[in-house]
Automatic annotation (TrEMBL):
It comes from the Bacteria. It comes from Citrobacter koseri (Citrobacter diversus). PANTHER family: APURINIC-APYRIMIDINIC ENDONUCLEASE (PTHR21445:SF0), ENDONUCLEASE IV ENDODEOXYRIBONUCLEASE IV (PTHR21445). Keywords: DNA damage, DNA repair, Endonuclease, Hydrolase, Metal-binding, Nuclease, Zinc. It is an enzyme of class 3 (hydrolase). Its cofactor is Zn(2+). GO terms for molecular function: deoxyribonuclease IV (phage-T4-induced) activity; DNA binding; DNA-(apurinic or apyrimidinic site) endonuclease activity; phosphoric diester hydrolase activity; zinc ion binding. Its EC number is 3.1.21.2. This is Endonuclease IV. The gene is nfo_1. Residues 11-159 form the Xylose isomerase-like TIM barrel domain. NCBIfam families: nfo.
Length: 165
């Protein structure tokens, strides 16, 4: 995909608003498109998702943002979980090679359908496959974690699950 021009009035306005209201890049966590599937089992669709993800990462670069939050992906019941997790890690590696200064932040999912990322083990497998560990992070969505079966009703249970993570 073509890289957008670095100088654009709307980008300048965004950066000025961040400065005016004292928002640093670390305080802003945009979410990529929900249509992106970095583990897509079909090669053509996987390439489209990878291109769209790189575009999102480049958009963050242009806005001066350092983080991009995303859901890992789905096997669509067409490939094994392990293969899908490996595709997700490979997709992240490709995006990190083509961008600078933006951390890919993997958000856990609730476990609906064939989406992966609802188990902490999924997140660990993806991170294990990412080459530049300094540019990958995790966002724990507590509603998703609870829906996926992690008991978060008490401080003790939260601490137990965080230690498990």
């Amino acid at each position: 995909m073509a890289r957008r021009a670095a100088h654009c009035p709307i980008i300048d306005d965004f950066k000025a608003a961040c400065e005016k209201y004292h928002y640093s890049p670390a305080q802003i966590l945009p979410h990529d498109s929900y249509l992106i599937n970095l583990g897509h089992p079909v090669s053509e669709a996987l390439e489209k998702s990878r291109d769209a993800f790189i575009d999102e990462m480049q958009r963050c670069e242009q806005l001066g943002l350092s983080l991009l939050n995303f859901h890992p992906g789905s096997h669509l019941q067409q490939i094994p979980e392990e293969e899908c997790l490996a595709r997700i890690a490979e997709s992240i590696n490709i995006a990190l090679e083509k961008t600078q200064g933006v951390t890919a932040v993997i958000e856990n999912t609730a476990g609906q359908g064939s989406n992966l990322g609802f188990r902490f083990e999924h997140l660990a497998a993806i991170i294990d496959g990412v080459e530049d560990k300094s540019r990958v992070g995790v966002c724990i969505d507590t509603c998703h974690a609870f829906a996926a079966g992690y008991d978060l009703r008490t401080t003790d249970e939260c601490e137990k699950n965080i230690r498990r993570f």
